[in-house]
Amino acid sequence: MSRAGRSLPAARLLAALFAVALTIGAARAARASETTGGDLRRALDDVLACERPDGGWTYGCEPGPDGAATKIVVRAQQVAVLLGLPLWDLLVVRSPGTPAGGLVLLEGWRRTGDVRWLAGARRAGDVLVATQLASGGWASEMPVHGQRLAPWFRWLNRWTALDDDVTSGAARFLAELWAATGERAYRASAERAFDLLLAAQLSGGAWPLTWRVPRWLGVVSPSFEDLPSTNDAATAGPIYALLVGARLLGRPDLADAAGRGGDWLVRVQDGAHRDAWAQQYTADGDLAAGRRFEPVGLASWETREMLDALLALAREPGGARFCRAIERGAAWLARVAIAPGCWARLYAPGDDRPIFVARDGAQVATPEEAKRPYKWTGEFGIPALLATLGHGARSVPDEPLPPRRVFGDAGRCPGGPPAMADDVPNPRARIARAAVLLAADEPLPTDPCAER
To answer: What is residue 129's DSSP assignment?
Structure first.
């Protein structure tokens, strides 16, 4: 028989290979379904069910403009309604939003081979690529028509969000998606986002809340949002994302920048003679106030996020230099709980008195009297961190570990209202729940400072 007679035509060969791939994928999914909990599979399906047809998530399972909190989008919606103009879908990027949703679906596909979840992750990646700003980042909320960003937003918006794991979360997700699919558009978009994170890093090593263009806005209209911050995962989010980018993209410059961020955290902890971190700092590293209802204080949620970032750095070569700061911060968290499993968001420097603030900036006695909406109390993922570091023992050896939470999921105090991950009608809550269940299916992270 000739060589031609032994060869399949190209189309038949591709079809055969595709059939084999489907068979392998189905077998993987079948095996995984036996080991992956039904709750987790339902949670991932719930995330998928709320995804927009064109990718990404809004504040509701029915796409639309509702729920906007950023001023530029709120004002634009008011004008559009007044003029009878068509409205848009509101793409939510702040965590847990579109990047976090893409990450949980991608991880679900990795574990099970369920191609529906990979397709959902790709749709989320596609809409992030399509809406990426000229700066290289994203805003917390973005008005979109299909996958296209509303033109007026590109013209009028001057802010790129560095807090709430917006740009850092999108960069991390797109790098992970490129590693899984090999799609070059995802890598190119991730590279642009990482380059922005490098450009936005302040000279001391921290990150501000926002990146504003043109840059002279910071001179003519200075804002605390241009100064070093830890609020809502600013600094922690970029550190974690840069470490992921360094590993997946082979860029040691990203790891170097992450290390400088960790060194800044150590310096301001030492300089303030405090074991925890504030939400906001001056350019010189002194504790500072943020918004009117965010006075100078030590922040439990942000301290947990900074400790997670330092733990990620401590697992890198040369990371032992971060262990003392980790030990100090964890000890502070262990001693300032206001009830078992419950922390105040803010504490007064000096006496660690819980701080609650009304909308007008006046301090009040209880969280019920304080400004709403705001997470004045919660578990903030702190019990999971303390379990990682060996603080406290479980009362029952086989009881589940405390939930590990994504950025933006505050958890709840025992007996309090449902946590975001337990209140699942809306997409963000569904994403938070899937993230908790995925983390519960993994072993407890190691403590890189334990031997030391």
So the answer is: H
Question: Which residue shows structure tokens 């990047």?
Answer: 99
Per the structure, the complete domain to which residue 102 belongs is given by 12-333+427-436
CATH classification at residue 256: 1.50.10.10
Tokens of 252: 């040691």
**Distance in angstroms (rounded) separating the CA atoms of residues 235 and 379:** 21
Region of 84 (left: φ > 0; alpha: ψ -120 to 50; beta: rest) is left
State pLDDT tens for residues 41-80. Answer: 999 999 999 999 999 999 999 999 999 999 999 999 999 9
Q: How many domains does the chain have?
A: 1
Structural domain includes residue 125? yes
Judge whether 444 lies within some domain: no
Residue 92 lies in a domain: yes
Q: List pLDDT tens digits, range 175-207.
A: 999 999 999 999 999 999 999 999 999 999 999
* Contact partners, residue 147, CB within 8 Å, separation at least 6: 54, 55, 126, 127, 130, 131
**Residue 321 in domain:** yes
How many helices and strands in the chain, by DSSP H and E? 16, 13
According to the 3-state scheme, what is the secondary structure of 44-92?
Answer: HHHHHHCCCCCCCCCCCCCCCCCCCCCHHHHHHHHHHHHHCCCCCEEEE
What are the pLDDT digits (tens) for 332-352? 999 999 999 999 999 999 899
